[in-house]
Amino acid sequence: MHVQDILRLTTREPAEELLTPERLTEMVEQGVRLKHYIGFEVSGLVHLGTGLISMQKVVDLQKAGIETTVFLADYHSWINKKLGGDLSTIRRVAGGYFKEALKVSIKIAGGDPEKTKFLMGSEVYEKLGLEYFTNVVKVSMDTTLSRVRRSITILGRREAESLSFAQLLYVPMQVADIFSMGVNIAHGGMDQRKAHVIAIEVGERAFSYKPVALHHHLLPGLALDQVTWERLVEAKRRGDKDEFSDAIADVKMSKSKPETAIFIHDREEDVRKKILGAFCPAGETELNPVLEIARYIIFRDRSEPLEVVNKKTGARLIFSSYLELEESYKQRKVHPLDLKHAVADELARILEPARRHFTEGPGRSYLEDLESITITR
Ligand SMILES: Nc1ncnc2c1ncn2[C@@H]1O[C@H](COP(=O)(O)OP(=O)(O)OP(=O)(O)O)[C@@H](O)[C@H]1O
Ligand SMILES: N[C@@H](Cc1ccc(O)cc1)C(=O)O
Questions:
Q1: Which helix or strand (DSSP H or E) is residue 251 part of?
Q2: Assigned CATH for 226-372
Q3: Strand extents, DSSP E, 289-336
Q4: Ligand 2, atom 2: nearest CA belongs to which residue?
Q5: Ligand 1 center–CA 9 separation, angstroms
Q6: Quick one: which of 155, 230, 247, 368 could link to 235 by a disulfide (CB 3.0–4.6 Å)?
């Protein structure tokens, strides 16, 4: 495939940052085999952000002919005391519910689940043994303690929190994962950028290659409030990527805050209830959680127009692109409630295969297994 096509697919939305396009171009031109990975902690339910948004990018990379891997970070989940801090439960859920949910998400995003490799952290560590430990030491020797502390937002933790030593170790381990698997495209949401920036810096010195980092947009949680929203919009306008990604990480759709999230297998009535209750300021198009679902999920690969019905007058507005919808919303020609109904209908339709898979199909026993484990942190 031509380098321009690879770049186009890689940087297409939901991608928000590629560090750097020049480095990716160089690798393609040198004929380097491109190896991507994205890692997940294994704990609660898979939502629109972890499932659909993350897998949309994996599907783009599949289409670009890049080797894609989903890394199920069992050791990192254990360090972060997920699923009651029990490693065997974490492994069971990783190979069961989690893998299944991400595969269904790949399908919904228009890709082929069989084209993506699923690897458990412990498989890599067992295979490499001393070499993995050496890689963790190499990264640690090349990184200061204060840098590690500043990077713990990749664990979904705040800098000021009291941490176990293992939670500090989490950071060099995540960076070492990249080099241990020979990954040259490290991918994650914007909240993962600090680990990847360390990898880029350490790479050349300690591992004789510099990976690229690819970060996708973080979908905000549904439960934003006016004050937080104003603070976020302000942080976004200031344009400091680290500051903004820390701020958005606090309010992103997150499995540990179920009230902020739509899970991929939610029932239609739950999708509707959650969307109807979501923060959706009239006329505001920035960081509006409902509009973002329209932009990133509904309009992603859509060829047919979206219809929004004005419930009061019965008038129908037809939008053939997200930008048209955004413009009308900005001009307050679309009422938030009408937008919510249209988004809820479409989203429920898109999620239907996941709902069926996990309630009537082969995913059911995996979901039941996870639901029987009630501790999530
Ligand atoms: N809201 C979101 N939108 C897009 N991507 C997300 C979102 N939340 C998480 N991700 C991405 O999914 C990957 C796994 O993240 P993570 O396991 O922290 O998800 P989470 O649901 O927020 O979990 P937790 O609640 O435990 O923090 C990361 O690359 C992360 O950036
Ligand atoms: N830090 C990632 C999980 C992860 C762990 C190890 C990795 O190598 C990559 C990703 C998260 O928040 O979910």
A1: helix 241-251
A2: 1.10.240.10
A3: 306-309, 316-319
A4: 40
A5: 22
A6: 247
User: DSSP string covering 212-226, please?
Assistant: EEEEEPPPBPTT--H
**How do residues 193-222 score in pLDDT, each as one tens digit?**
999 999 999 999 999 999 999 999 999 999
Q: Is 174 annotated in some ligand binding site?
A: yes
Q: Kindly give the parts of the chain with pLDDT less than 70.
A: 374-377
Is 177 annotated as belonging to a binding site? yes
CB of 41 closer than 6 angstroms to any ligand 2 atom = yes
Q: How far is the CA of 281 from the centre of ligand 2 (A)?
A: 33
- Kindly list the domain boundaries of the chain, sorted by start residue: 3-216, 226-372
Give the Cα separation of 307 and 325 in Å (integer). Answer: 10
* Ligand 2 site, residue 264, Cβ cutoff 6 A: no
The confidence score (pLDDT) of residue 377 equals 43
Query: What is the pLDDT at residue 373?
Result: 86
39 alpha carbon – ligand 1 mean position (Å): 10
CA end-to-end span of the chain:
44
